[in-house]
Amino acid sequence: MATGVLISLLITFLVIILVLYLINMLPIDGRAKQIARVIVIVIGIISLLKYLAVF
């Protein structure tokens, strides 16, 4: 059980990093990149908290 949660946390963390990297590569202006980064980070934190059974 604990191993499954740990793997899920690791995969979620890696997906967040990958999406942030891909957002950085997009040819859009800085403001839109910043908004997209904030949205991804908030969604990532919520999903990480869900795996930790806070929600």
Keywords:
55 residues; 2 helices; 84% helix
Structural notes for this entry:
By secondary structure, the chain is mainly alpha-helical. It has one domain. 84% of the residues lie in helices and 0% in strands. Helix 1 runs antiparallel to helix 2.
| Binned strand content | under 5%
Report the radius of gyration as a whole number of Å: 13 Å
Overall geometric form: elongated
Structural class: mainly alpha
Instruction: Sketch the topology as an H/E string, one letter per element.
Output: HH
Largest sheet: none
Q: Which residues form runs of ≥5 with pLDDT under 50?
A: none
Number of structural domains: 1
Q: Percent helix among the residues?
A: over 70%
**Measured distance between first and last alpha carbons:** 18 Å
Tally of DSSP helical segments? 2
Rounded average pLDDT: 87
Q: Would you report the number of β strands? A: 0
